[in-house]
Amino acid sequence: MKSNFTSFVRKETLHILRDRRTMLIVLLIPVVLMVLFGFAISTEVNEVRIAVVAPERTDGVREAVERIVRNDSFAFCGYITEDRIDPMLRTGRVDAVAVFAPDYDRRRLQAASGTPQPPLIQLILDASNVNTAGTAAAWLQGVLLGEASPQTLFETRMLFNPRMKSAFNFVPGIMGLIFILVCAMMTSVSIVREKESGTMEVLLVSPVRPFRIILAKMIPYFAISCIVLILILLLARYLLGVPMSGGVAGIFAMSLLYLVLSLALGLLVSTIARTQVAALLISAMVMLLPILMLSGMIFPIENLPRFFQWVSAVVPARWYIDAMRRMMIQGASMADVWVDGAVLLAMAGLLLGVSFRKFNDKLE
Amino acid sequence: MEAIEVKGLSKRFGAVQALDAVTFSVHPGELFGLIGPDGAGKTTLFRLLATLLSPDSGEARVGGCDIVRDYRAIRSRVGYMPGRFSLYGDLTVEENLRFFAALFGVEVEASYDLIAPVYRQIEPFRRRRAAKLSGGMKQKLALSCALIHRPEILFLDEPTTGVDAVSRSEFWEMLDSLRQHGMTILVSTPYMDEASRCDRIALCNEGRVLGIDTPEALVRRFEGRLYAIRADAMFALLAAARRIEGVEACYPFGETHHLVAGADFDMRRLARELGPMPGLHIEPAEATIEDVFIQWMKR
Amino acid sequence: MNEAVISVHELTKRFGDFTAVDRISFEVFRGEIFGFLGANGAGKTTAMRMLCGLSRPTSGCGRVAGCDIVRQSEEIKRHIGYMSQRFSLYDDLTVRENIRLFAGIYGLSRRETGTRSDDLLRRLDFASEGNTLVGALPLGWKQKLAFSIATLHRPEVVFLDEPTGGVDPLTRRQFWEMIYEAAAGGTTLFVTTHYMDEAEYCSRVSIMVDGRIRALDTPAHLKQQYATRSIDELFRLLARGAQRSE
């Protein structure tokens, strides 16, 4: 029976290869999204507008401000009072505010002579553009103090995006979305297509167990997903410069688990839907919408109303995206994301079990 | 042992009784026809026998195997061609055939002698996508695929529906040659004129079997006298004939109207009652399957 | 009786280098039931589309119900009725809703719609079924209803594309009686069918082979001319020589 299994896989592969348009879309979407984000994320700092709060405009303060004025990367927007900090940043009239301590001159001298000091300058930045804010903060520190100075003299506050959520965060989001698209949506549509065209009847009235037919169907979609996975990871690493410090092996393992889960989800949809249109609609309502809204891809989970936070716990993409973020961006290892892994594993097992049980070798 | 045995088989879908206590049996090597219009329950019956559905009540055996308990055994022994086009349109003729061969774990070459009379006609197009074939050619490919594993019993659900008269008669010739191989064939059709191609037929309507027999014997069971009548004004003739007392039925039939009357009703009386009509022509007619069907439907 | 309602001359339709309909010419007269036969792929559907103003002929000309099929293709649609086996009515609307919908499409006034739909339901013996969903009706009833609705706006010509496919023999005959009645009332009917016995009900039949009309006459004359016993036999005789299919 082995030979007929490979011939099923071959047939399924032919279906996919002959449907060039869909194939192209599946391979193109991730590439286009990644490249788009690649260009959108600018790490260059240009014309950072700075206002200064200084209770006393001492010589030290003046010197520091002078250095800002002379630097091409910065634009000095004048002195402001403390109560203007928030409105100025909020309305976007400045990108950063430097707040000098009242006894700046004296304490700076003490610091230079080696006495430990609490922060002398507080930097408040608009972090809604994460990369700019990070780079700007680093540059500012250098420029304000002239020579290389002990970092401890600064206190940096990022406003509006305190956790410095990076634009890289979209990469795991795209992955969570695209694999559901390829595995769940495309497998369910391809199974339902056989129901619609009547070929399912003939397949069922054959000695082959439906289990094998379904398995053969999943393999090519699984293979495509793996290609897409490699494509995304390569682009993430070399085009966007995502660190991936958590180790590629872990990222792969977690992704494969997610692929299996998506396939199981697709199979489940195919047992419910009778027409391809229905399969697409169910996929869109049950899978795409929750991923976009509830997986943390766009809106942070912690900002959702409590009820939706609970709901989000059953969205597989939430756990996958979380694990990917931590492994790809924050450098977490497999061991650090074991909770995500365990949840995904349990979900995959449950979905596979239910969908195989629900998959009927009759028409009813 | 009978090839197919059906006893009191019933199946209901919601409010529709698709099949209502149907009983019949098919002898080995027989070409058995299920003749009836849409809604007669033919497709439901095929799906039950092909083990795609489970019956509500009653039982059936195919090749000696029970359709509920031994359904796996049945699946490797029957060939099934559903009513709809059931091939992969995006695969070529040859790829379709090879796939179905693999599905049953056989080699195309091993069954070539059996499918050759059918397949040879479409072999010149073997690299063409199945979706691009004509209706008649699609049917031939579907039949080749259903035959690939040399089934003992062949189920053909309306293989000739929507196919033109020429392809239809070619198809029946192919079934005739398959019967020579000793295959048992259960075939359904809505075209009454195809009934005479079968060894025995069951007339079906609204989930029930109206009667089972050879086509010749069924026709002999027609009750009453049948006349073919004709006149220049056919529609007026129909209305006039129906007004006559003692006429059971009158309906258009080909170029004439068929008129059914009791045994005491002779031609002379008919002519007298119809009165003078231009071009009036009356002659006794042989009943056809269609006449029998109409008569039984009215009961 | 000899007024031509449909007349076409050298009508041709080409798709690339494939000639689907090849210089066909014929006339159909008022009150005729014209059987339009042909094997699958002979060009029937293409020819019918041109007559209904849905497709522009490559060359040739024709008039249907007084309208030029090239220049007045929109105007034609108001004078014809069309019914096919595949699409006829909306299953999820009731009988009355379907009637009202099609009456609206053909611009019938509210009063006309009311009287004609009552009349239609009475003639079909459907009065009690006015509020039934069409999807719940038996196939034969649906087809009879579809025909009545296709003639609701009193068209001069009605095109029927395999109207009786899959219908039981009794209902099929009731359907044909409706066709006879419409023809007796002066409507012209243009019918395609796969049932060869139905071809015998027609006033005249044409048989298309490979895009051309190979035979056209009354069923009786045709059988006499080709010495066949039935139209079925004649059809097979002519169509067997066909070079192409679908």
Features:
heterotrimer; A: 364 residues; alpha/beta; abc type-2 transporter like fold; 5-stranded mixed β-sheet; 14 helices; 63% helix; 8% strand; C: 246 residues; Rossmann fold; 6-stranded mixed β-sheet; 4-stranded antiparallel β-sheet; 9 helices; 10 strands; 36% helix; 26% strand
Task: Please outline the helices and strands.
The complex is a heterotrimer of chains A (364), B (299) and C (246).
Chain A: H1 2-18, H2 20-40, E1 48-53, H3 59-70, E2 74-79, H4 85-90, E3 96-100, H5 104-112, E4 121-126, H6 130-145, E5 154-159, H7 170-197, H8 199-204, H9 210-240, H10 248-272, H11 276-294, H12 306-312, H13 316-328, H14 338-358
Parallel strand pairs in A: 1-2, 1-3, 4-5
Antiparallel strand pairs in A: 3-4
Helix pairs in contact in A: 1-9, 2-7, 2-9, 3-6, 7-9, 7-10, 7-11, 7-13, 9-10, 10-13, 10-14, 13-14
Chain B: E1 4-13, E2 16-26, E3 31-35, H1 42-49, E4 57-62, E5 65-66, H2 71-77, E6 78-81, H3 93-103, H4 112-119, H5 135-147, E7 153-156, H6 165-180, E8 184-189, E9 200-205, E10 208-213, H7 215-220, E11 225-230, H8 234-243, E12 247-253, E13 256-261, H9 267-274, E14 281-284, H10 289-297
Parallel strand pairs in B: 3-8, 3-9, 6-7, 7-8
Antiparallel strand pairs in B: 1-2, 1-4, 4-5, 9-10, 11-13, 11-14, 12-13
Helix pairs in contact in B: 3-5, 4-5
Chain C: E1 4-15, E2 18-29, E3 33-38, H1 44-51, E4 59-64, E5 67-68, H2 73-79, E6 80-84, H3 95-105, H4 110-123, H5 139-150, E7 157-161, H6 169-184, E8 188-192, H7 196-199, E9 204-209, E10 212-217, H8 219-226, H9 231-239
Parallel strand pairs in C: 3-8, 3-9, 6-7, 7-8
Antiparallel strand pairs in C: 1-2, 1-4, 4-5, 9-10
Helix pairs in contact in C: 5-6
Summary?
Chain A has 364 residues and is α/β, with parallel strands linked by helices. Helices cover 63% and strands 8% of the residues of chain A.
